[in-house]
Amino acid sequence: MHVLVTGGAGFIGSHIVDGYVARGWDVTVVDDLSTGERSNVNPKARLVVGSVTDPAVVAEVVRPGVDLLNHHAAQMDVRRSVADPVFDAEQNIVASLRLLEQVVKSGVGSVIFASSGGAAYGEPVFVPQTENHPFAPMSPYGCAKLSVEHYLGFYRQVHGIRAVALRYGNVYGPRQKKHGEAGVVAIFAGKMLAGETVTINGSGLQTRDYVFVEDVVRANMAVSDSDLSGAFNVGTGVETSVVELFEAMCAALGGPYPSVHAPAKAGEQLRSVLDGAKLRLAAGLAAPNPLAHGLRQTLEWMTQQAS
């Protein structure tokens, strides 16, 4: 099998590339390295440096012989999407459409799209949020993810492409950078390991569903190996507040660390928690990693990087 992974030099994408390589697949990565790192890319994968916003690059990498497109390249800064919705749409909607058009032209049979649960659903009407939860995105980023999902439905119905949208919770793990939306584990760890004070926005009682990157890889591999289509949450079903996360990180690092509270971010979502049972049942996945386990592995990696 030949898989093309967009954004495959990034935090999540590079782990997914490793998963495909471990399965013996032929892997091509396309990444403009604006946020990804060349060092993240598995040496057994072929790296094409370029942007999926460039039609020439898309025509080069989405070609006959590719069996599966795994699309993780994205403009992922929620605050930038609010400040510049047009730029976000160009990066996240128009670029995705170019890829999908080339998928049709080249005869690629399957597409997996990295979507977002929290950003698409918005504030919960009920918890945990299932795939049937109403959509109420609170940012252009969430609107873009949802828009691409709708386009996937069109390509599935009209062109017969097997299309899957994986709606992630807040993914964390090794290789995550110290900046960017949903990077709170990396941000906190960077401060703590540098001996600096951690800043908690607002009360710290806002909750998220923290998903270890290993579970995201398992979800992608399971979907890649199956004939599943449609949308699936990738979440733990467990809400963790920012304060609880900080306390868990303090425990994992073996001591108290200083923190201060800053004003809450305007428009920040207060709760997000995803029910991942649908995919676990359909794909036979094991229960997700507990937060303590994932944090321990993540902090070990980050400690090594800081030394």
Description:
The protein is α/β, with parallel strands linked by helices and 307 residues long. The protein has two domains: 2-171 and 210-234, 3-Layer(aba) Sandwich (Rossmann fold), CATH 3.40.50.720; 173-208 and 238-272 and 289-306, UDP-galactose 4-epimerase, domain 1 (Alpha-Beta Complex). Helix content is 42%, strand content 18%. The strands form four sheets. It has a seven-stranded parallel sheet, with helices on both faces. Strands 7-10 form a two-stranded parallel sheet. Strands 8-13 form a two-stranded parallel sheet. Helix 4 (85-106) runs parallel beside helix 6 (140-159) and helix 7 crosses helix 11. The N and C termini lie far apart (39 Å). The relative contact order is 0.13. The mean pLDDT is 96.
Topology:
Elements: E1 2-6, H1 11-22, E2 26-31, E3 46-49, H2 55-61, E4 68-71, H3 78-83, H4 85-106, E5 110-116, H5 117-121, H6 140-159, E6 162-168, E7 170-172, H7 184-193, E8 198-201, E9 207-208, E10 210-212, H8 213-224, E11 230-234, E12 240-241, H9 242-253, E13 259-262, H10 277-283, H11 291-306
Parallel strand pairs: 1-2, 1-4, 2-3, 4-5, 5-6, 6-11, 7-10, 8-13
Antiparallel strand pairs: 9-12
Helix pairs in contact: 1-8, 4-6, 7-11, 9-11
Features:
307 residues; seven-stranded parallel sheet; Rossmann fold; 2 domains
Poorly predicted runs are: none
Q: What is the radius of gyration computed over CA atoms, rounded to a whole number of angstroms?
A: 19 Å
| Number of DSSP strand runs | 13
The CATH homologous superfamily name of the largest domain equals: NAD(P)-binding Rossmann-like Domain
CATH class wording of the largest domain: Alpha Beta
- Strand arrangement within the widest β-sheet reads 3-2-1-4-5-6-11
CATH topology of the largest domain: Rossmann fold
Shape: globular
What proportion of the residues is helical, as a percent range? 40-55%
Total discrete domains: 2
| SS class | alpha/beta
- The CATH architecture category of the largest domain equals 3-Layer(aba) Sandwich
Strand and helix order = EHEEHEHHEHHEEHEEEHEEHEHH
DSSP strand (E) fraction? Answer: 15-25%
Cα end-to-end separation: 39 Å
Number of helices: 11
Question: Taking all residues together, what is the mean pLDDT?
Answer: 96
Q: What's the story with the biggest beta sheet?
A: 7 strands, parallel
